[in-house]
Amino acid sequence: MKEVKIGGTSVGDGHPCFLIGEIGINHNGDTEIAKKLIDVADAAGCNAVKFQKRTVDVVYSAEELAKPRENPFGPTNGDLKRGLEFGLEEYQEIDRYCREQGILWLASCWDEPSVDFIDQFNVPCYKIASASMTDDGLIRYTRGKAKSRPILLSTGMSTLEQVDHAVEVLGKENLVIIHTTSTYPAYYPELALRVIPTLIKRYGVPVGYSGHETGIASSVAAATLGACIVERHITLDRSMWGSDHAASLEPSGFTRLIRDIRLVEQSMGDGVKRLIEREIPIQKKLRRK
Question: What band does 48 get if pLDDT is binned at 50, 70 and 90?
Answer without folding.
Answer: very high
